Each structure stands twice: as C-alpha cells, then as structure tokens.
Amino acid sequence: MRNGMxxxxxxxxxxxxxxxxxxxxxxxxASESAAATPENAPGITVTEAMVRLPAVAGSxxxxxxxxxxxxxxxxxxxxxxxxxxxxxxxxxxxxxNGVSSMRxxxxxxxEPGKSTTFKPGGLHIMLFGVADTLKAGSTxxxxxxxxxxxxxxxxxxxxxxxxxxxxxxxxGMNHDMSKM
Length: 180
Hints:
By secondary structure, the chain is an alpha+beta fold. It is 15% helix and 42% strand.
C-alpha cells in the first residue's frame, strides 16, 4: 500500500510540474529550431563540382570544385562529404626538391570576394571507398562544411579517369592492339 501511494504521489507531482509551464504555441519551439538550422551557408557558392572515378576499383577517386565567398566574415572549409564515397579528405599537392607529393589539409581559408579552386596539381578532395553505384555521365552531391557548422551542397558531374568522353560509349569497341 505504501509503495502504491508513493508511486501515485510521484505521478501527480510530475504532472503538476509539467503543468506549471504553459506554452503559448506548442509548435513554436520546434519551428524556430528548424528555421535556425541553415540549409546553405549565406554568401558561399560551390560551382564546377566534378568527381573523377578511380581507374581501378578500390583505388581512391578525386573531386574538384570552386568555392566562392561573396561577403561576410572570412570562413574556412572544415570538412567535405561526397555522396557515394565512404570518406572524403581535403588534400594539396606540394613540390619540394623537385618531388611532388600530397598531404592532407585540415581546413581551407576562404576570403570575401574571392574564390578557391580545387584542381589537379593543387587543392583537391581525395575520395576513399568509392561506391560502384557512381557511374560516369551521372551526378552525385558534394557538401562542404564551414568552420561555423554551415553547409553548402552542390551537384557534381561524374567522370571516368580519362575525363568526359562526350557521351561516347566505347564498351563495344575492340581495343586489342596486338594485331596492329
């Protein structure tokens, strides 16, 4: 009996505690938090996005794009995500003593009024674990995350390692060079 009375009083206390705070509009808090989440970072644009598939399945692919900041405080690209890749990392190509190598980059500074281009021989995005569902001639999505948590997404054209073949299907051609 004592346990039942204690449980009943506890339930009444919890209900009364919740009643003490009246919400003006129960849906307001949820809609305000959804509106506060940015869909795309203001003033940041991503253009010329392209994914180049690896020549050999299981090898890394690469992505290139241009990011421009129109106005506002200077931002940094803090991360990247490419739909269809297990992992994406920002890298840069550096040449020291005549030897070129790649190294991972933690973040990339953006400046208002300027654009930053990820291209062969410079900044680029290495793609690891590229899914076989990514096919040349189709598109995927690239998302960059800024240092303040804002994100920008853009479609990326998918190409084979040889670049875009202009829609030419060469799968039926005989590439046997032994008879030449």
